[in-house]
Design a protein that fits this description.
alpha+beta, Jelly Rolls, eight-stranded antiparallel beta sheet, four-stranded antiparallel beta sheet, 4 helices, 12 strands, 22% helix
Length: 249
């Protein structure tokens, strides 16, 4: 979704998305969070990269219908959505759909408790705000993404759907700013093929990229979860997460 023109004045078409109910989440996740055992749903696919089931298939369909409605709204209104970040040219910032508070709930209900047990050294316990957006990879738009780190302490990446080939997410390990260009080790490298409803949780400082889309269209919800406490303590200038990596040891 990439248009130029009028300002956004959009009314949410799927009101259920405006609040995060238990019915929207995978039953196993709800049971783990309510039972005080969030670690039980996390599958560590590579060092510091955790996969779990987040949304039900029905919830993913709600998201896709909303994104489809927003796309048509922008086309009819000649509206100009904000780019989700400096790297992706296609997608939508979720605050423009009126979903800011729902994403706050997602951080407090799911991201923070999961990250606290899985990524504690990345200031997970103090995650208190977010920047959330949907990225889209399609044959007529963005088809890949270069190696980068996120402007987050912890990132949530959720596959919402469509049909696609390629556009896998490759990870290359956590690095600090000084060592960001260093090569990755074999044990750090991991390639994730997104599945509808599945999610990844990882440190924002974990270097990753998206491989070339070969066919179709893929939409993913991205939440950059941040800690105001940690960011206030960082030295200027703020240039991504302030962390010590294994090269610093």
């Amino acid at each position: 979704m990439h248009y130029a023109g009028a300002m956004i004045s959009y009314r949410l078409r799927q009101p259920a998305l405006s609040s995060l109910s238990d019915a929207m989440l995978a039953p196993g996740l709800v049971a783990a969070l309510d039972g005080g055992s969030p670690a039980s749903v996390l599958d560590e696919r590579a060092p510091g990269v955790f996969e779990f089931e987040l949304f039900t298939p029905q919830t993913c369909q709600l998201w896709l219908r909303e994104l489809h409605a927003f796309e048509h709204y922008c086309a009819r209104a000649n509206a100009s959505p904000t780019r989700p970040n400096s790297m992706n040219s296609y997608g939508v910032v979720l605050s423009e759909l009126g979903l800011e508070y729902a994403m706050d709930d997602l951080v407090s209900r799911c991201v923070r408790p999961l990250a606290t047990v899985a990524l504690a050294s990345h200031h997970a316990v103090s995650l208190d705000h977010q920047h959330s957006f949907v990225v889209e990879y399609a044959m007529g738009g963005d088809r890949s993404l270069d190696l980068h780190v996120d402007d987050s302490e912890v990132t949530l990446n959720v596959c919402l759907g469509w049909d696609f080939e390629g556009a896998a997410v490759q990870f290359h390990g956590v690095r600090c700013d000084e060592h960001r260009g260093d090569p990755s080790r074999a044990d750090e490298r991991f390639e994730w093929t997104p599945r509808v409803g599945s999610a990844l949780l990882h440190a924002g400082a974990n270097r990753h990229c998206v491989t070339e889309l070969r066919d179709g269209r893929r939409s993913n919800l991205i939440v950059w979860a941040r800690s105001a406490r940690h960011r206030r303590a960082r030295p200027e200038p703020h240039q991504g997460p302030m962390i010590a990596c294994r090269r610093c040891a």
